[in-house]
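Researcher: Please predict.
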Amino acid sequence: MKKAVIYGERKAGWVEVPDPQPKEDWAVVKVHATPMCTEYKSWVAGHKAEYLGHEAVGEVVAVAQPCHVEVGDRVVVMPQYPCARCALCVAGDYIHCQDNYDFEAFMGTREGSATYAQYVVKPSWLLPRIPDGISYEHASLALCGLGPSFGAFEAIGLSAFDTVLVTGLGPVGLGAVVNARFRELE
């Protein structure tokens, strides 16, 4: 497969690496869209990087055994490699997991961990299906664009009658403005 790498200041390119293989209840996803997050800062600053991207959307193309997804499923690739067993993961707060998988130790390589690539491999429980009628591009907004502020606003019970201050209007901040603006009237 091909994956993106940063060679230096405003210099990036594609390199060929082995395709990832599914293992246990992990699935291989063909990446259709991946949001640009902090990777842009690395590119501008010239920080060399071989493993770019931490979330995406795409299509399941391989599984090692029956699991939460099937080949052909359109899915959102959630970030990180949480354990799925701790109290935080079980409660749905896996983003705070203190026992993340060591991807390289588990898979035997780091290849397949980055989403700026043709394929990524993930635990199947981190691959929620995309509803029919939603494009890959729109589904990718559930990630950093809209997801963090939506979850935060739900947790604090923000309503249309509340005032919220959003500082910083990058992708996450703009998503917060959208989520704050379209809260339900209670």
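Model: Residues 171-181 form the longest helix (11 residues).
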